[in-house]
Structures are given as C-alpha cells and as structure tokens.
Specification:
Layout (H helix, E strand, L loop, with lengths): L3 E8 L5 H17 L2 E6 L9 H6 L1 H19 L2 E10 L6 E8 L5 E6 L5 E3 L5 E3 L14 E3 L3 E5 L8 H9 L4 E3 L10 H12 L2 E4 L1 E7 L2 E4 L3 E3 L5 E4 L5 E7 L1 H10 L10
Parallel strand pairs: 1-2, 1-12, 2-3, 9-10, 10-11
Antiparallel strand pairs: 1-16, 3-4, 4-5, 6-7, 8-9, 11-14, 12-13, 14-15
Helix pairs in contact: 1-3
C-alpha cells in the first residue's frame, strides 16, 4: 500500500433520481481530476424524498444506482462506495438501506445492509422512524482487503453511535472505514467520527448530505476525512462538493506504534 488520495463527496440529493445521478457524476469527475483513487458517495445519494415516493420507486432506484456505480468505477478506474440506497426487501412494502463498494473492474466487493435504524425523536421536534419502511441488516459488514488501498470497512450513518460495529471492523484489520450519512443536525457528528477514528486507529471517510433535500428535511453536511489520531484532514463545509485527503500507510503505522491501544485490550 502506497499513499493515495481519497474523497468524501457531499451532495444535496432530492426526490429526482436522474438529477441526483447527474450531480453525483459531476462530483465524481471533480474528485478524479484531483487524483482520487477511492471515492465515497453519501447515504441516499441517488434519491432523497418522501417515504412513499422512495418505496414506489425502490426497484428503479436500486437498479439505476447499482448500474451507475459500476459504470463510474469502470469509466474512471476508481474504487467507489454508494453510501446507501433502497433495495426492495422480502418483506412487502419495505427495503434494505444498502451500501455497496465497487472496484475499478465494476465488481461489487462489499454489500452492506444498514443494521442500526434511525428511530429517534430529535431535539428540533422532528421524529424519524426508519424501521417503518426499512428492514435492518442482520450481518456485520464484510471487509475488502486491498494491497493498493488498505483494508476497507463500511457502515451507514446512525451506525456511528454503536462502537461495537467499528471494533468488529478493527478486529478484522480495518485501516479505512466509510461512514456515509444524511445526518439531521450537527450534534455529535464530528465528535463521533473522531472517536471512531481514534479508538480504532484508522482513517474515517464520511461522505454527507447537506442543505434542504425536500419538504422540511435538512441535512448537516460537513463531509469529512479523519486520520487515525482524530485529526480532521478535510471538511466539505455546508455546500455540495468534495473533501479530499491523503491516505498514508506511514501515518497508520506511526499512530498504531505510538498508541497501540488495540493491543492493550483486556476485554474482548
């Protein structure tokens, strides 16, 4: 593994599949022109709208999203994460919130169904019940072991509040963990991402949604890349764009040597 550039893309996805994919392609091209080899798209990158609309279009969204990711990977010769889109579930009227990682040949190398669902009453007075339309995944995320990019793991948004999932990835040898999100507010976003990086001595790549997506649904933005010491290497702010930073194997080795906390664990 040599140093390379990674990108966390930030979007304002809306209830229009074609428009979102066109915007995603533009941002991917921007990332590639800056030299990125590993690119992450946020949760709901291909469609973000009312629940009924999402369910009605789920098959079309799933098909178009998977085809798009494979085309982008092959066209630009990158490894790319589609950070979360609906794939119809066996349970009628529900979907899986699914992230897939695709290699430059167009091969799907990670398929992760979001485990922790966002059923929360948030401080702004809004309530969210993701479980009303989403079936939780039952399998911990698999790993992608790459000599060129390092060992990559995947999570989705609300997962970030459950450190045991990230420790599972660390135990498998994770060097880089994706946290694609459509975060509803600023509370805990940065500190949780930093905590997951620090406690697992790994890079965190967190693509994000930002701005007004539909109706009254606002997302926070601040797509980030964070190093194993918890240093924020890139922050996309609150507008659509990219956060780009170097993934450096020497930095991984340095931090893990200076702070070998994973080796000092007593309870496993």
């Amino acid at each position: 593994m040599k140093s390379y550039l990674a990108v966390a893309i930030q979007m304002t996805s809306v209830p229009n599949l074609e428009q979102n994919l066109a915007e995603a392609e533009k941002l991917i091209q921007m990332a590639v022109h800056q030299g990125a080899k590993l690119v992450g798209l946020p949760e709901n990158f291909s469609f973000m709208g009312e629940v009924n609309d999402k369910l009605a279009q789920a098959e079309a969204i799933a098909s178009a999203s998977e085809k798009f990711l494979k085309q982008m990977a092959q066209r630009f010769q990158i490894t790319i994460l589609g950070g979360g889109f609906p794939i119809p579930a066996n349970e009628r009227g529900k979907v899986h919130n699914t992230a897939i990682l695709v290699d430059p040949s167009g091969q799907e190398i990670i398929h992760y169904q979001k485990i922790h669902l966002f059923d929360v009453n948030v401080p702004d007075g809004n309530s969210y019940r993701e479980s009303s339309t989403v079936v939780p995944g039952k399998n911990l995320p698999s790993m992608y072991f790459s000599q060129e990019l390092g060992n990559i793991g995947v999570s989705i948004c609300y997962d970030v509040r459950f450190p045991e999932l990230y420790r599972h990835i660390a135990d498998k040898g994770g060097d880089i963990i994706f946290v694609p999100a459509a975060f509803t507010g600023k509370d805990h976003w940065q500190v949780l991402l930093q905590a997951r990086a620090i406690e697992n001595t790994c890079y965190i790549i967190a693509p994000a949604q930002t701005g007004l997506n539909y109706a009254q649904r606002h997302t926070y933005g601040h797509a980030m890349i964070i190093d194993p010491w918890g240093v924020i290497l890139a922050d996309a702010g609150d507008k659509p764009g990219v956060a780009i930073a170097e993934i450096n194997p020497y930095r991984l080795e340095q931090v893990r040597s200076q702070m070998p906390s994973l080796q000092h664990r007593v309870f496993t």
